[in-house]
Amino acid sequence: MKKVIFVISIFLAAWNAYAYDLEQTEIHGFISQGYLISDDNNYFFAETKDGTFQFSEIGINFTTRPTENLSLGMQFLSRDLGRAGNNEVKIDWAFADYQYRNWLGLRVGMLKVPHGLYNQSRDIDAARTNIFLPQSVYEEGTRDLLTGMNGISIYGILPHGFSYQFLGGQIGKQKIKDKGKLDSREIRDVELDYSYSGQILWETPAEGLMIGASMTDVSGFTTSRDVVMGPPGTPPQNFTTDFNTMAWWVASLEYNIYDFRFSAEYFQIDVELYMNPPGLTVKTESQGYYGSLSYAFTDWLEVGTYYSIFYYDKNDKHGDRFNASKDFAVTFRFDIDDHWLWKIEGHHIDGLAHETSSEGEMSDKAFLFAIKTTFSF
Amino acid sequence: MKKIIVGLLAMVAFSSAAYADVIIIANKDVPENTLSRKEIKEIFFGKRVQWSDHRKIHVTTLKDTVIHKMFLKQYLNKSHAKWKSYWKRMIFTGRGVPPKSVRTEAELIEYIAETKGAVGYVSSEGIPDDSETIVKIIKVR
What we know:
Number of strands of chain A: 19
Largest interface: A-B, 40 and 25 residues
Shape of chain B: globular
Distance between the termini of chain B: 30 Å
Number of helices of chain A: 3
Helix content of chain B: 40-55%
Largest sheet of chain B: 6 strands, mixed
Mean pLDDT of chain A: 89
CATH superfamily of chain A: Porin
Helix content of chain A: under 10%
Distance between the termini of chain A: 24 Å
Strand order of the largest sheet of chain B: 2-6-1-5-3-4
Oligomer: heterodimer
Structural class of chain B: alpha/beta
Strand order of the largest sheet of chain A: 2-3-4-5-6-7-8-10-11-13-14-15-16-17-18-19
């Protein structure tokens, strides 16, 4: 029922006006539907090998400005991507934003984590050329974990083209439980410590060139699961995993010149976890990077491509076929008007690090085709 | 060599003329008399939100017009599509809402004249001769 009301509210809002002011309140929304099919393997937690329409997003947001320096806003998001999302309506972000000075603003509430250049806007299909961001840096499996943190952030612009944001808070137990479910590991309980995230961007004196760095540390959380370790009928045993270290950083570069956009990012995540039983410590250093180029031929046609490489264990680059994923993607974006767009995208994926849920034989290489349309107002 | 110098001079003259086509104007109470291109970018992208006296900046733009596109190209180095895409990113991440936009230059001048902290742009043809009595023309450095 909740879903129905949610969808109706979006359509009513869209029906009345594309985007309108109710005194000081702005309402905006988007709705998208896509289709995925691969010639082999399954990707993005969906049955892509059979072709799937389980690829949709609906969002609506409200923003108001009670005073000149204070704004309040929240966004509801419902998405579906195979086993992920399942069209549950969730709060995507919700915060109060007080801008004291150009160099200092304060946000309090559920905030988006500044991970690379595009994580904060990854739910917004209309804001980028590609359907899927490069998975080496923006893996779909961690999308919900990375989108929201309950806490406080400070941000602002500084002289000489610098800007910053720092965020402290907690990720939210339910997000970790949802991630466990996505990985077919039912988590019973989560104990959380505080998490931190920050980003510095520099718009260099070279016109159109921006570089930046971001880091996030969510170390110090423990998950508990009930695991049956024995023949049927054996009572489940408490299985805990202490994530003593879970920290990542991203180095970013974006260059805009004329109607070209080039971007490149490098990502590294360090994880050290202690599993009990059996009392085992595991350390992993994963690495991802990509280069991306897009060109807007006209206001209605943009073509983009990227090559993205990910290694689950960066110290074992020639390891088994599940360790790496190399993804070459090409996208055509067609803007019908300011509110409606279509995208067509092809991927050639080499390696199985991002393959999800296939059974039986898997191919080392596969093609994935995606088509998506989005309406936003 | 002469040809190169003439060519370069022509380019400089052309670019100066191009910049003269779109003029940045502000409310007369705005403390700034000059702005750098970087500051104009920060203001119109919603990153710089206060003037030097800490008063709120109210950005005003023209709806999808030739002058709006000229302004985007000349001052922000963006196409209309990229401009829309940027504001969608801001809207749906809660980091800002697009500037107020009006249909005509006359409306824009009227709004800027009446609104403290307002800034916008008009074409050199669209600004009346007595405009400096009601708005401030910002020099771009």
